[in-house]
Design a protein that fits this description.
Largest sheet: 6 strands, mixed
Radius of gyration: 21 Å
Number of strands: 10
Oligomer: single chain
Strand order of the largest sheet: 1-2-10-7-8-9
Distance between the termini: 45 Å
Order of helices and strands: HEHEHEHEHEHEHHEHEHHEHHEHH
Number of helices: 15
Strand content: 5-15%
Shape: globular
Bound molecules: ligand AN7
Structural class: alpha/beta
């Protein structure tokens, strides 16, 4: 295949809209270019006429949307001569940081809350050779420590407070508009630190030829003024886990709790940006209980064949509720982002299915009975 046809990642794909120069060494693992899957079975059960799409970000190289931001943040860190990156993480950022640091040949330090990150993510951070520092505290405590330690040691922060992260993540919005030929009417996302909802808004705004106060790069004087691709921007809707829902409480939450450990965050780093997104897009925030989140995760796996981690299912749990109630009206096109792959958290998946497995003797009659008893 000619080299020019090979997909080589989102910076290369959207190079004219990314903060790189012709000579920048790109640190890429072929991230982005994820499928936009139209749901076929779930909408029929709602009795509502909506076009419902899933942006399946679990298909990125390390299994989450974090790769979009990390390719850009690590590319920039290397361009600046940094030898080490650092992040606090509920798991996915640490997995992405570990992989992209390995690719770049630099060191990744990751601070994770002890006992509160999903097994797959821990495996990733460890196998890629990151220096894993477990803290006896939650993500918010880790984030505060990372900010302090980065002032006293030569490390580059790659959490989403690093504006290059959002520049990478904005490409998800570009891909959606490129795939649909227009922006959707509604875009629903799970919200933790609110970096991703901010990044999507930056992307949609850029493609619409409009500026947003949420973009550090275009505040007042866009560094990347580009002709508009579409005039329209979606309504942005952010869903939080009920036990970790500062945007619903209207203030920071000190002891966040949810089974969706990826969004077990009480002090969102993009607090101001997210409110800007809500106002500029005329969107809203809402919350989902752990039971609703797990039910949406199971529904997607059983009815559509799509396996995401619990935090990701929050977007679908919330969207289905708002479609049912009519808050998202009939005739709308809706995109829900599934931020991470289901295999990230095998423990929670298996716990959801206790008793669902049959054990029989290794014998034809027993297997045949098991089949005939369970035909649907
Ligand atoms: C699967 O990895 O914050 O609102 O440290 O892993 O942009 O924070 C993860 C966040 C949603 C929330 N879904 O996104 C981390 C981390 C999944 C996630 C979010 C995360 P933001």
């Amino acid at each position: 295949m000619p080299e020019s046809k090979r997909y080589t990642g989102l910076i290369e794909k959207y190079r004219a809209r990314m903060p790189v120069s012709a000579s920048t060494r790109l640190i890429s693992l072929g991230e982005g270019n994820t499928p936009l899957i139209r749901l076929e079975n779930i909408p029929a059960t709602l009795g509502k006429d909506v076009e419902l799409y899933i942006k399946y970000e679990g298909l990125n190289p390390t299994g989450s949307f974090k790769d979009r931001g990390m390719t850009m943040a690590v590319t920039q860190a290397v361009a600046e001569g940094s030898r080490a990156i650092i992040c606090a993480s509920t798991g996915n950022t640490s997995a992405a940081a570990a992989a992209y640091a390995a690719r770049a040949g630099i060191t990744a330090f990751v601070l994770i809350p002890e006992g509160k990150i999903a097994l797959g993510k821990l495996a990733q951070a460890m196998i890629h050779g990151a220096v894993v520092i477990q803290i006896r505290g939650n993500f918010d405590a880790g984030m505060a420590l990372v900010k302090e330690v980065a002032e006293q040691t030569p490390v580059t922060i790659v959490n989403s407070i690093n504006p290059y992260r959002l520049q990478g993540q904005k490409t998800a919005a570009f891909e959606i508009v490129d795939a649909l030929g227009r922006a959707p009417d509604f875009h629903c996302l799970p919200v933790g630190n609110a970096g991703n909802i901010t990044a999507h808004w930056i992307g949609y705004s850029e493609y619409a030829g409009q500026q947003t106060a949420a973009c550090a790069f275009c505040a007042g004087q866009c560094k990347y003024p580009h002709p508009a691709v579409t005039g329209k921007r979606p309504v942005m809707v952010g869903y939080q886990a009920a036990g970790a829902a500062p945007f619903l409480r209207g203030h920071m939450v000190d002891h966040p709790e949810t089974i969706a450990t990826a969004i077990r965050i009480g002090h969102p780093q993009s607090w101001e940006h997210a409110w800007t997104v809500q106002k500029e897009s005329a969107g809203w925030f809402d919350e989902c209980t752990d039971a609703e989140i797990l039910a949406a995760q199971k529904l997607l796996t059983e009815k559509e064949g799509i396996f995401c981690e619990p935090a990701s299912a929050t977007s679908v749990a919330g969207a289905l509720r708002d479609i049912r109630s009519g808050k998202i009206p009939q005739g709308s096109s809706v995109v829900c982002t599934l931020t991470g792959h289901g295999l990230k958290d095998p423990d929670t998946a298996i716990r959801q299915c206790q008793g669902d497995m049959l054990t029989v003797d290794a014998e034809l009659g027993a297997v045949k009975t098991a089949i005939l008893d369970n035909m649907t």
